[in-house]
Amino acid sequence: MLTFLVSAIRLGMTFLLGSTGETITEKSGHLNLGTPGVMCVGASCGCYAEYLYFSAVGAFNINPVLAVLIPITATLLGAALMGLLFCFMTVTLRVNQNVTGLALTTFGVGLSDYMIAQTGIIYTKGSRYFTAHLEIADDLGWFGEIFLSHGILIYLAIVIALVTSFVLNKTKVGLHLRAVGENPATADAAGINVSAYRYAATCIGCGISGLGGLSFIMDYLNGNWEYCIDAIGWLAIALVIFTVWKPNLAIIGSIIFGGLYIASTYIQGFNMEAKEIFKMLPYIVTVIVLLFTSIRNKKKNQPPQSLGLNYFREER
Amino acid sequence: MAKSSDKVRTPPFHIVKREPLPWYSALGVRVAAIAAALVLCALVITVLTQKNPIEVYAAMIDGAFGSTSRIWNLLQNLAMLLCVSLAVTPAFKMKFWNIGAEGQVLVGGLATVYVMLFLGGTIPTPLLLVLMVAASILAGIVWALLPAIAKALWNTNETLFTLMMNYIAIQFVAFFLKKYVKSGSGVLTPMPEYGLPVIGDMPYLLNIIIVAVLTIGVYIYLKHSKQGYEISVVGESENTAKYVGINVKKVIIRTLILSGALCGVAGLLLVGGTNHTISTATAGGRGFTAIMVSWLAKFNPFVMIVTSFLIVFLERGAEQVSSVFRIPSAISDIITGIILFFIIGCEFFLQYKIVFTKHGKENE
């Protein structure tokens, strides 16, 4: 049970990073279906940077801080560049977001697979620095196991989610961002630079989503690359709906998702086929939440009103 | 503001919507975009692989057209992608973002394989075929209908709903394979004996003919039928549609039934007419690619033949390139991605024009 919970948390934080990034993006009115691709690119940029760093300094001169910071920076940069590409297409060139997003996923998955083919799929050495935790955790029994035994990215995920939630709901920047997502024409009339907000939100959001990919490889899989980050990415999009666009709710939601995703391997007495049905649960739950929120039609649980729509000032 | 009139910053240019271009300039812009994309891809290939890009492109053409079987393969893949694109088109024209074609195709295929596995050999072949067709279409319809009803009744976001339905479908297929493949390998032995009939010795000809007929059918339906017209009105403006007395909910549900049925047919052709088995990758991402195909063709079924040809050509060609030059096959996704970005991006130049502000001239 304890290992189940710990695994659920570790996987959940991957979803949390992915969905927090996507929430920021969606709050600006961008439905970025490229998130799976962004997460792939984020992960592979991080791994690639780790590989370059290790081969540059040699195995004995590795600085633990740099071994964490360099991949994180590379991930943020790589993923944010993908966001920039998305924005260039949708904000500057005003092409359809869904089409751009899907193309971005194709491109991102290809790019990341290509990069990984160059460096191999084992990053266990680098992963050690990501999963390192305080020694005190080992002496505190279940409490330490659940709350203190994690690597840096897990805590980073929670901090990012809380900060995002605060910024979105309690600051002027957040208010402006939400205004841009709800009704860009009104926001524009109020003197808010719609394009700048959309660019910034999407690039930051993509950077954070990218970290989710890195956390999946370096933390959850202990550095063994798997070609399924895009599936994780779609679930991260699902999680955004599941938690009705609230990053603080997503902390709990992501752990539930993580639990549902791995439950089939932990619960005894299930045969193989039942496990496959079990894996459906995150998606079914998301559909139910989606239906429920739209039936209840409560104002504060709705998607941003102009989600998926581009804004062109001269077209009103 | 009024006082600082000589300090007012005028942007160096602004963007305005333009009148639709004549077809030859529109075509020119697109061809230019593809050419630019190919040049960029050549650069990328050279940088990544240190190979001569012209050799790489030659290998691509060889991979797509190099032999009779390759051409058949190309046509078959073209037909399948086109079929899914036809399926999503009526819904898109209505601005219903059906991202769930992948799942709808997959359940269509799953229904076909169920019938083949459990009824194959026990009932007469014509009846079996009828049941396969009916089951696949019905399954596709059900998968498309759920999001459509939710959209019509409660305005549920269809992009997200259909996206989730994809993964539910994939898990159903995974469940099916675990349950009914006795060996536990997860690979269902193909059952060509219960497949769709084969014309002559050309295994894909029937698929191609069916899709060709569907292409014409969808074109006529969208362009020349009352229902097709209603779809475009709803797509242009839901309020206008309501105002002229179109029952929007009915149109949404009716269109998605058509969309789902066509996806079911695609599943039928993929399982019954091509693979004679199913895996979670049977739809192979076509549900997503189809969205781009349809959108690039501006929802015109005949132009979709061209756009899906382009994508299938890239895929088949890049496969060949990766095996000849020993480059990771992911290069094909990269190339496809770059070219897609260029074609998608060039739409901007078709719809808008950049007007440079002339200094010393009054604006407005």
Describe this structure in words.
The complex is a heterodimer of chains A (316) and B (364). By secondary structure, chain A is mainly α. In chain A, 75% of the residues lie in helices and 0% in strands. Chain A has helices spanning 2-27, 35-57, 64-92, 97-119, 124-131, 141-148, 152-170, 172-182, 184-189, 194-220, 229-242, 247-266, 272-278, 281-296. In chain A, helix 2 (35-57) packs parallel to helix 4, helix 2 crosses helix 11 and helix 7 (152-170) runs antiparallel to helix 12. Chain B is mostly helical and 364 residues long. In chain B, 71% of the residues lie in helices and 3% in strands. Chain B has helices at 23-49, 53-65, 68-93, 101-119, 125-154, 158-180, 205-224, 226-236, 238-243, 248-275, 286-296, 301-324, 330-351, and strands spanning 13-17, 352-356. In chain B, helix 1 runs antiparallel to helix 13 (330-351), helix 3 crosses helix 8 and helix 5 (125-154) runs antiparallel to helix 6. Chain B is globular and about 80 Å long. Residues 1-5 and 360-364 of chain B have low confidence and may be disordered.
H and E order of chain B: EHHHHHHHHHHHHHE
Strand content of chain A: under 5%
Largest sheet of chain B: 2 strands, antiparallel
Query: Strand pairing plus helix content of chain B: what structural class?
Result: mainly alpha
Query: What's the CATH architecture of chain A?
Result: Orthogonal Bundle
Number of helices of chain B: 13
DSSP helix fraction of chain A: over 70%
Outline of chain B: globular
Radius of gyration of chain A: 20 Å
Uncertain segments of chain A: none
Can I get a quick summary?
By secondary structure, chain A is mostly helical.
